[in-house]
C-alpha cells in the first residue's frame, strides 16, 4: 500500500466522507515468491583448519582451507553477497578468540579461472549469475597478527548474507 493510498484511507475515515452506518472495504493483495537462489550448503558450516605449528605460523608457511560456497540460481539472477564478522583485524582478516591470531580470507570465483574477488569484510559484492549456478570459494588462512600468539585452541564466526537485487 502506498503513501497515497494510506492518505486517502485516513481522509475517508476522518473527514466524514462516510455517513454513519456506511462502510468501506479495502482489499489488500500481494504475492510471495521463492528466492532466486538457494545454497547447496547447510545454514551452519563447520570449518576445521587442522593443527598448525607456531613455527609454520611465524614463517608464514601455513596451508589454506578452501570452503566451497555454491548457490543454485535462476539464470541471470542478480545477488549481493556480504561477509561480516564481529571483530576484524583489517578488511580481509577475521579476528579469532586467540589473541594475535587472525584468519586471512580470500574470495575466489573458480568459474572465471580462479579469479580473486576484491572484497572486504562488511562490504557488499554484486554478482550476476550466468547459467544456473553461482560458485565461489572462500579461502581461509591462519595468520599471525602483530606478534606470535600463544599456543591454544581458537574459534571465529563469519556471517554470510545474500540479498537479491
Main traits of this protein?
mainly beta, seven-stranded antiparallel beta sheet, three-stranded antiparallel beta sheet, about 35% strand, elongated
Which stretches are low in confidence, meaning pLDDT under 50 for 5 or more residues running? none
CATH topology descriptor: Immunoglobulin-like
Q: Strand-residue fraction?
A: 35-45%
Let me know the largest β-sheet.
7 strands, antiparallel
CATH architecture designation: Sandwich
**Fourth-level CATH superfamily:** Fimbrial-type adhesion domain
Can you describe what's shown?
The chain has 165 residues and is mainly β. It has a single domain (35-164), classed as Immunoglobulin-like, CATH 2.60.40.1090. 10% of the residues lie in helices and 36% in strands. The protein contains two helices and ten strands. Strands 1, 2, 4, 5, 6, 7 and 9 form a seven-stranded antiparallel sheet that branches. A hairpin with a 2-residue loop joins strand 4 (88-90) and strand 5. The longest helix has 12 residues, at 3-14. The chain is elongated. The model has no long low-confidence stretch (mean pLDDT 88).
Note the topology.
Layout: H1 3-14, E1 37-39, H2 54-58, E2 65-73, E3 78-84, E4 88-90, E5 93-95, E6 101-109, E7 115-117, E8 124-128, E9 133-144, E10 159-164
Antiparallel strand pairs: 1-2, 2-9, 3-8, 3-10, 4-5, 5-6, 6-7, 6-9
Entry summary:
The protein is mainly β and 165 residues long.
Amino acid at each position: 500500500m502506498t503513501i497515497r493510498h494510506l492518505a486517502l484511507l485516513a481522509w475517508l475515515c476522518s473527514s466524514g466522507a462516510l455517513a454513519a452506518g456506511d462502510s468501506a472495504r479495502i482489499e489488500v493483495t500481494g504475492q510471495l515468491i521463492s528466492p532466486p537462489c538457494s545454497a547447496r550448503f547447510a545454514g551452519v558450516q563447520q570449518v576445521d583448519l587442522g593443527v598448525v605449528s607456531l613455527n609454520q605460523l611465524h614463517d608464514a608457511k601455513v596451508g589454506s582451507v578452501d570452503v566451497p560456497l555454491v548457490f543454485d540460481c535462476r539464470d541471470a539472477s542478480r545477488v549481493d553477497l556480504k561477509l561480516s564478522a564481529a571483530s576484524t583485524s583489517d578488511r580481509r582478516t577475521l579476528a579469532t578468540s586467540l589473541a594475535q591470531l587472525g584468519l586471512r580470507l580470500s574470495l575466489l570465483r573458480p568459474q572465471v579461472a580462479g579469479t580473486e574477488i576484491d572484497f572486504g569484510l562488511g562490504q557488499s559484492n554484486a554478482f550476476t549469475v550466468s547459467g544456473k549456478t553461482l560458485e565461489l570459494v572462500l579461502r581461509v588462512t591462519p595468520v599471525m597478527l602483530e606478534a606470535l600468539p600463544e599456543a591454544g585452541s581458537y574459534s571465529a564466526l563469519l556471517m554470510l548474507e545474500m540479498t537479491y537485487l
